[in-house]
Amino acid sequence: MQNEKREKIGFLLGTIGVICFSLTLPATRIAVEYFGTTIVGLGRTVVAAFLVAIIFIVRKEKLPTPRQFKSLGIVAFGAVLGFPLLTSWAMESLPVSHGAVEVALLPLSTAGFAMLRAGEIPSIKFWISSLIGSFAVIIYALHLGFGHLQFADLAILAAVLILGLSYAEGGKLAKELGSWQVIAWAILIGAPFFIIPVGLHLTIEMLHAPFQAWVSFFYLAVVSQFLAYIAWYSGMALGGIARVSQIQYLQPFLMILFATIFLDESITFFTLLIAVVVVLSVILGKNATIIKKGSQPKKN
What we know:
mainly alpha
């Protein structure tokens, strides 16, 4: 009964994280037009690092162990460097609706790395549901790209692969280090390396960027880069990495919804049809058997 409650809380926190992440590409699209790839992709970490440093000083957080620092390096590589930088570059040329569907491959990427890094073994039912969702979003991406993928598509696919590893490693580490501490330490690890390139790309003209550009940038820095990860890693630690990762099949369609609201991008019938397929795959995957190596299978 206690485990069931933990899984429900984990699923709720994972959903909150996904909703917060769903504004990331629309906010990136707005911000990158005025600040450029480097400032949006790396500058968000520099800003987030100031918030993290204050929290750590107030709480007098202890340093992670050398082994934990190794895992934090993997988290930083994906969540702090790879995904923000690659998606910022891609959003200079891709519409949000195009890039968003490719992000739906994250659950499959995360589950694969979870199997390798956290010892979770998804069942055949889980993989079937993941493949259904993945094939649906690939078909959608090809449809939007008139039958081919652009170089920016490859950047997002690379970002998805890197972030999948980061999610799996972070979800595993959150169980011993704490959910928010994982992304907080990853931010502090990455920020010092980003200060110089960010400083070199700052210009006076950026001070005249419109209000929505500044709001988008600070949303990316405070929410997308930090607060959303707290909810996400907490959810994976409580509900299981592979299972909670299924929620992310909803993320591209939430992104498209937000893009419609803030960027005037349209929602087509084909988009809604793909959304139904993806939601059904989430339901199927949520009820799939997930086991830990050396333990008995667990079902919902």
